[in-house]
Amino acid sequence: MTIRKTASLVGSCCLLWPATACTAAPPAGPAAVRREATPSSTPSPGHEALRLPGMEAGTATVLKAGPRKGSMVVGDVPPGKDELWVLFRCRGDGKAEIILEPGVNMAFTCLDDLISPVMNRLDLGRRKTLTVRVQAPDSVEWALRVTR
Predict the structure, then answer these.
(1) How far apart are CA 32 and CA 8, in angstroms?
(2) Where would I find the beta strands (DSSP E) of the chain?
């Protein structure tokens, strides 16, 4: 997967270790808003359903959660030598933070009535297991996928 290719797909923001945060604001215009419906979700009036971010061929999902609202301990990412891709979508008025313990915090501003897509690349080298948490108010709906 190349950064250039993914950037054109979701308006991405790339994060390389040791930086600890990256916020992606959606670009102006209708192309920034990707409202997608899924048959298993029931959207609220005036909203399309938020769904899990997709993934590129050649990558494998390590961890996923959502769509849901509020905070959650998502799970553990086992050690590995390959870079991690953190794909996140959120909607709602508030801040969301993805925390990979130990050592990586990524804060995002989510917008009401817009699905904000974000993609971060983490090149952490060989590390121990990372615990992934999402902190968000109940006003923020989100979905997360971590791939390798």
Answers:
(1) 11
(2) 61-69, 72-77, 84-91, 94-101, 104-110, 116-122, 130-135, 141-147
Report the b/e string of 42-61 with b at 16+ CB within 10 A: eeeeebbbbbbbebeeebee
Residue 141 vs residues 7, 18, 21, 59, 100: alpha-carbon distances, Å: 23, 28, 20, 25, 19
CA angle 97, 58, 83 (to 5 degrees): 45
In which band, very low, low, confident or very high, does the pLDDT at 19 lie, cut at 50, 70 and 90?
very low
Specify whether the CB–CB gap between 86 and 130 falls below 8 A: no
Residue 131 and residue 110: Cα distance in Å, rounded? 23
Closest C-alpha among 37, 15, 11, 29 to residue 106: 15
Give residue 46's pLDDT: 59
Q: How far apart are CA 63 and CA 77, in angstroms?
A: 7
pTM over 0.85: no
What is the pLDDT, as a whole number, of residue 45? Answer: 54
pLDDT exceeds cutoff 70 at 50: yes
